[in-house]
Amino acid sequence: MTAFPLKFRQTADGDVLFCDDAGGFFKSDDAFLSRYAHDQFTADDDAFLLRNGHAFEEVGDLAYSGFEYRFASRLYAPGPLDYIILVPTLRCNLACGYCQVSRVNENTPGFDWSNQTLEAVLSFLGTITAPKIKIEFQGGEPTLRLDILSTVRDFCRSRFERCEFVVCTNLQDVSDEVWSFLSLTDVYVSTSLDGDVSTHELQRTFKSARTAQFVENLDAAIARLGNGKVSALPTIDPRRPPEPKSVIEAYTSRGMNSIYLRPVNYQGFARKRYDARASSSAWNAYHSSFIDELVEFNFTAEVPAEEYYFVHCLRRILRAGHNGHVDLRNPNIVGHGYVVIDHDGKIYPTDEARMVSRVGQFDLSMGDVFTGMSMATVDALNEEAANNFHPDCVHCTYQAYCGIDLVDDLSRYGRIDLPKDQTDFCQRHLALFDKIFAMIYSDDPKIRKSLAIWAGVPSFDASIARCHQ
Amino acid sequence: MQPNSNRVEFPSQFAPHLSDAVVRFRYLNPGIQVKIGDGFVLLSSTGADLMSNDLERQFLFCLYRQKVYAETLTLRATLIAGVTGV
Predict the structure, then answer these.
(1) I need a surface site. Which of A16, A73, A91, A247 has the fewest CB within 10 A?
(2) Contacts for A183 with CB less than 8 Å, ≥ 6 apart
């Protein structure tokens, strides 16, 4: 019998967690680890490992092939280009202190698509061969150029079998024309509600009248469009975060039960005002307390709530192929399945790459809509986009569930070869996965109830939390 | 202040992986001195917060990981070649 490679990590309760490259896991102790390291497995060890897919008798047998299948299912393969983020303007009618997207004032000329840019974007969209398309309008405030949004939508509806449009808007000033556009059946709204209303005012609107206007528009959007078409994200400052309970209340009272907490992002103009480089420990503590509060909430709530990214990570542990988040994939191949087109027609592999380029750190553009895509820079980045043989990740228990985010590393540190354990990405994900595994191995009925809800199953199956002595 | 120190012993089968493990351990614990002896290492620090049991465990984890990595590298490469064709 040969065991597939096991990676191990001490847990908070003193046990040892073992994981393999295909995402299998179990808990044991130092004695088992010692037997593993000293090549002294017992018959019981052999039986356990074989029974649970951690070992095989010979290459090509059922156990080996099954492991290969699970291993392959964990790897991300980009599909055809069918998701485009468009930035028709950088102008915005708010001036949030941490703005991540290098906005300009509403009346500043020269930061909108020209007619030539619009035509070139439509020509670019016309070259896409996928039958469906998802367009996300970002900014600036994209509704300031509703004419462009309408033109793009009309073109896509004539060109593709299925279309979906997401408007990332601050919902601050919503005209009748904008309401009409947002009400279209294939249009979705993504907005920001920074925790509770008072935090939103502190971070975004600054004046109570402006705050009231936003809240009125948000509630009107939910009433007019329905919960399923409106989503909101809170950007949290880890130095002065809102109480988790107030955030949960602000969202769930509006029927928004999926909350995606985002820390202030160290990119774009945010870097000028906030020191977010070393905030991972504060963020991890806040995020953990938020999850604890959600567990309490869900135990009695009629309609449960979730933290989107935590649930995403949980599902990446429990099942393969959960690659829906662009920041957490392995390998994280960029510039293929989706791209970003900026206000000047330049094409970027990710929105973060656009910001890194805009602040002058690196030019991560991959051509423009006028002359076509150039893959040289992105191909170089993609050479390092896997964690399977990274000298740090290769020893990490969470490698199979985790990913890699080179643009984030470039943005924060100006390099991609920093030891992983010193990066914000690694510190945040270690804390997340530690928390999830602590919950998986918890016998607290409140935790088990939330885990079942978040995993999408009727009840928590304790047999997934395997142990071996 | 006298440096705290801790002697960690290991069997000879781990000797081929010791140098790699020490490099990694020092890189993860830059405040810890590592002296290599015959079948043991001596870990020392001038820090008052050195927790010897935990540090011994951390060092052994590094040593175990390095041995597992080295001995399973061929299998890992075969597995990934099997799923990626590379």
Answers:
(1) A73
(2) A224, A225
pLDDT above 80 (res A97): no
> pLDDT tens digit string along A155-186?
999 999 999 999 999 999 999 999 999 999 99
User: Between the CA of residue A173 and those of A141, A256, A272, A442, what are the distances in Å?
Assistant: 10, 21, 27, 47
Q: Domain extents for chain B?
A: 4-84
Q: Which domains does chain A have, with CATH numbers?
A: 1-74 (no CATH), 83-376 (3.20.20.70)
Mean pLDDT for the stretch of residues A108-123: 94
Contact B64 A72 (CB under 8 A): no
Residue B1 in this model has a pLDDT that exceeds 70:
no
Decide if B57 and A21 are in contact by the 8 Å CB cutoff. no
Question: In this complex, which of B14, B24, B76 lies closest to A5 when CB atoms are compared?
Answer: B76
Q: Which residue out of B13, B60, B75, B86 would a mutagenesis test of the A interface target, given it has the greatest number of A Cβ atoms within 10 Å?
A: B75
Answer yes or no: do B64 and A37 touch at CB < 8 A: yes
- Contact across the interface for A71 and B83, Cβ inside 8 Å: yes
CATH architecture of B4-84: 2-Layer Sandwich (3.30)
Q: What does the pLDDT look like over A256-303, one tens digit per residue?
A: 999 999 988 755 555 655 555 567 889 999 999 999 999 999 999 999
**CB-based contact (8 Å) between B57 and chain A?**
yes
Token representation of residue A14: 């003193």
Identity of the residue numbered A460: F
Strand partners, A83: A134, A338
